[in-house]
Amino acid sequence: MCLIMLCPIAATYEVFLHDAYYKYIPSTNNYYLYSGCSSPDLLKQLFYFMCVCLSLTTVSNCFVFAKLCLFPLTPRNLETEFFFVSFMSSNTLTIGTVLTYGMRSATPGTLLFEVNKILLPVVSDVLSLNQPFYLIFYHKPARKLFFDIIHEVFRCLCCRKPRGIRPVDVTIL
Hints:
- This protein has 6 helices and 2 strands, in the order ααββαααα.
- The protein is mainly alpha-helical.
- Helix 3 packs antiparallel against helix 4.
């Protein structure tokens, strides 16, 4: 758990050393985000960090998959579910690494730069949120529990009478 918290902080530590601020450019009538941190240096560090994460994730997924296959008694389809979850997560991490490399090598103002600027936040959000959703959809007990909770929430919200609301007596008015 310490590695999960400390490694991203170490990879992006340079960003925290500088304040980010908005600067108004009158010629374009826009505000731009500026920082004392060099973007190419940050992207280079981030790319190396993501390459290390990708290789560690791939190796650990292979080891865990091999260990799961060696267990004498495993729940049905456990290997398949694990494979799908780790495969999809590795694909998202690979896409993030490729986009980081593209952003690192793109020059500002080019099509590659603009496409990467749009896609990089989306991929980073998917990267952080995909594992729970893959577990929900590929693991049958987790999927059943998730949909049971959603069903109960909607049943409680839709079928209950609101409290504290009394009918208005029209004769008093």
